[in-house]
Amino acid sequence: MTQLAYNLTGTGEKYLTFIHGFCESKAIWNDFVPYFTENYRVLTLDLGGFGDSKDLLPEPCSIEALAEQVAELLRHLQIAKTSIVAHSLGGYVSLALAEKYPEFVEKLCLFHSTALADNPEKKEIRNKVIDFVQKVGVNQYIDSFVTPLFYTKRTQELVEAIKFVEEIGKKTPLQTIVAVVAAMRDRQDRLHVIKNASFPILYIIGKDDGAVSFESYQEQIQANPQIQSLVLEETAHMGMFERPQETLKALKQFLNVV
Question: Are 37 and 9 in contact (CB under 8 A)?
């Protein structure tokens, strides 16, 4: 099987893997990677269907199938264990990976992501997204999708970051968007994965995240004494751009980088 597109850099003894979210690519972590390359060998990858892996959408597509591709890449690179920082969809994929292959995971940061399955209301929203993108096409969908991922009162200030994320999103194939929205809609609840995890977990939470409600985190962050959390005020779903200093500091502490 063709391997996922990836970059591997750094000189550390341990491994650190960054996994992007929906309609993103490994490029969203560009500003973060240099801070970890002295302590880690840092892997960034494009999930199947996205970025430079856009021709590798698994068929049939599921969160488990996306996770299996990540596992295959780790095996190909002979990475036996890695810490993982995973944004949104990347968190769903990482939890599926941790469920099937817990031996791969040293630490896990769920960066604006959740272990819970979609509730009926969210499933209906996913169905509407599929209908909408099929009707209007990728560019118009991304124009409507990206800006609300950022905290409303800072969208003017963050216009360059919004443009950057939009440019990445507009390169996503229509087939990927439709298939992955359905995969997110149908994903399993993985609260048991974090409850039973033997590895440390960090949640990075946007207080004003429209994609994952703040209230939905309460049960999760109390599920396991190994869980730490950072709650960011006036922050939505894109903390790596909205709050780069705070999120970077939290990651460095979590990953023991001075």
Answer: yes
Q: Give the separation between CA 72 and CA 199, rounded to whole angstroms.
A: 21
Q: Which domain holds residue 60?
A: 6-254
Report the pLDDT value the prediction gives residue 2, as an integer from 0 to 100. Answer: 72
176 contacts 142 by C-beta, under 8 angstroms: no
CATH number, position 234: 3.40.50.1820
**Could you give the dihedral angle defined by the CA atoms of residues 48, 50, 53 and 55, in that order, rounded to the nearest 10 degrees?**
80
* pLDDT tens column, 96-126: 999 999 999 999 999 999 999 999 999 999 9
**pLDDT tens-digit map of 35-46:** 999 999 999 999
pTM above threshold 0.90:
yes
In a domain? residue 1: no
